[in-house]
Amino acid sequence: MVQAIHTSIKGRARYYVRELYRSVSLQKYLERAISQYPEIIGVTASSLTGNLLVKFKPDKSDAEIAVLIEKSIANYQPQKPESRQKAVEAEAQPRENWHLLDINSVLEKFSSSQDSGLDKDTVSQNLDRYGKNALAKSKSRSDWSIFADQFQSLPVALLGVASGISLISEGFADAVAIAVVLLTNSVIGYITESQSEKIINSLQNDQIPSALVIRDGEQQKIESEAIVVGDILIIENNKQLCGCRCSPD
Questions:
Q1: Phi, psi angles (nearest 5°) of residue 212
Q2: Which residue from 24, 41, 86, 163 could staple onto 178, CB 3.0 to 4.6 Å apart?
C-alpha cells in the first residue's frame, strides 16, 4: 500500500509504504530501484517509519510517482532464506592473519595451486560465495543535490524553526547566530560528501578492465570482475606470480 502523506511542495512528495516498515532490505531496494527512473531526482526511504521521500521532476505529479513506487514494490523479491544464511556464514568466517601464513598454507585453505591455480568448479563456487570483484556502482549526485541534502535532517529542521521563532520575536541576533551555524554545518557537510563522492568515482574509474590468471593449469585473460578468492594472478610487468586475492578479508 502506497499512501501520499505530504505533497504540498512541487517536485517533492512523502509517501507511507506499509511494506517498508521494519524492512531494511526493502528500504535499500526501493532507494536503488526508484532512483533508476529518469523522472526521479532523489529517494530517501526509512524502515523505521515506513516513509519514503521522493524528489522528482516538476512536470510529474505525485500520483504518477506513486505508480512508480507501486511498480517497484511489485518487482521486489525478498531475500531468500538460503541467501540470508550465506550472508550470516560469510560474516561468521574467522579472520586469519594471512601475512603470517606461508604460501602453501594459504593455497591449501583456498583449494588453489601455485602451478595450476583454481579449477572451474572452485571458481564457480567462490564467485557464488563472495560475489564479483567489483565496487558497487553509485549514482552520481549534483553539487546542488548534495548541498540541499544537508538541510534534510531533524536537528537542522529544529534549528530552522528556532531561527524563525527568534526572527518573529525580534531576536535578530539569535536568528543570525542560528543561521550562521546552519550554514557552516551545511558547508562542512557539503565539502565532506563531495570529496567522498569524488574518491568513490575515482576508484570506480581506476579499475583495471582485465587480468591474467592461472586456472586449470593454463594462463587465461579474464575480466577483473571475474577474479575470485584463491586466484593466482600474473603481474605482467615482471611475470611474477602473485596470489593477490587469496583472502576474503
A1: -105, 120
A2: 163
Q: What is the pLDDT of residue 83?
A: 46
φ, ψ of residue 107 to 5 degrees: the values are -60, -40
pLDDT of res. 89: 47
Residue linked to cell 543535490: 145
Q: Is 209 exposed, middle or buried (0-12, 13-18, 19+ CB in 10 A)?
A: exposed
pLDDT value at residue 34: 92
> What torsion, rounded to 10 degrees, do the Cα atoms 122, 123, 126, 131 define?
-170
Q: How many residues comprise the chain?
A: 249
The answer on 51 and 13 residing in a single domain is yes
Do 120 and 181 fall into the same domain?
Answer: no
One-letter amino acid at 46 equals S
198/223 same-domain check: no
- CB contact at 8 A, 55 and 12: yes
Tell me the three cell numbers of residue 209.
578492465
For residue 29, give its domain range.
Answer: 2-74
Report how far residue 117's alpha carbon sits from residue 99's, in angstroms, rounded to the nearest whole number: 20
Q: The pTM is what?
A: 0.38
* Domain count along the chain: 3
Radius of gyration of the chain (CA): 25
pLDDT digits (tens, 9 = 90+) for 191-211: 888 888 777 777 666 666 788
Alpha-carbon distance 65 to 42, whole Å?
Answer: 12
